[in-house]
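Hey, I'm writing a tutorial for new members on how sequence and structure tokens pair up, and I'd like a real worked example in the thread rather than a made-up one. If someone can provide the structure for the chain below, I'll link this post from the tutorial.
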Amino acid sequence: MTACAIEPAAPAAPNTAPSTAPTAPTAAGTAFAIAADGSYAARLAGDGEARFPERWTLGGPEPYAVPLPLGQPEEADSGLLALADGRVLIHRRVAGRHAFALLYPTGAAAGPRTGELPLGGIEAADYTGLTLLPPAPDGRGTFALAARADATEVWQITGAGTGPRQAAVVPGRCSGGVWLDRAGGLLALDREQDGRTKAVAVDLGRGGEVSPLLQIAEDSDDRLLLADPDSGLLLIRSDAPGEPRLGWGVLGSARPVRFPECLREEGAAAVPFAVQPGQILMPENCAVALCLDGGRLGLWRPADRYLFRLGAPVGWLGGTGMWTREGVLRLPYATADVPCGVVNLTVPQAPPEVRFVPPPAAPAAPRPIPLQQAPLTCG
């Protein structure tokens, strides 16, 4: 085993990848969906016309995969979500409908290895597109965004005791989807209206009531990329500083959004994909994992003024992973020799000489509006 390359030089993390690669895999079928509690995951495995769902068990001492094949291969655009109870939600386009079902291993010695529970569907002709949202924090609820010409509907697929039901209607075209609380009642969406994109909060417990979430500058595009319900940490992309930048803020805080200079070099290409949970009232100490340009991995904390750049593990299911409360980043990977593996990393301790010292702030940069002006408070 060899250590991941780190820029700038710093002590290697205690656990390292089997080897490194300059880019993450991008082939279809490598998308990896992790359950809300990190116990299971699902992906569409295989290639060509032989695609099938595969469930990974991540909660035990060693990860292992269980194939969930059915009578015919799945289409490449089928969507998957892993539930905390071990079942896998699949979304298919079938005969002009968006159809949903739950898949699970039967464990039977004879007969089909995969059980399927149909959940119903939504007429595809009524919408211009449908995408699955990240699993709700409760581990049971799953939701989807269905776009119309002038509005976006939020549909609850599982967790309501019935088939798909409409949970909210949001004027405008929405994308993204970030949960703001552990109960799964507050959902953040990036809404495009009048040529601008602003993040809004949708209260599913109040019939889909919509309220502003990010209003950094009047003429800026402000998107919410990721949030941690425990600490209130928000990861934001905005062009309020004059160019698209990564920034961070705290839900309900009186302090403005900050755009760290150490993240500026990555520009608009960096995508945060995991935040360390459990850091109650300590958003600055949350470790954040980012997928950087070229498939590299970035590790960063708001309290630090530097970004660690690491080579991606070979076979990394790019842009996916999860932090434990103890600050261990778990990255899934699959290779010919290890078809189901997890690399564990921690944020290295940087020596003082490699700390980044930001230049003085440019006086012409616009001053972001504090998040406190949004009608939301930390839950």
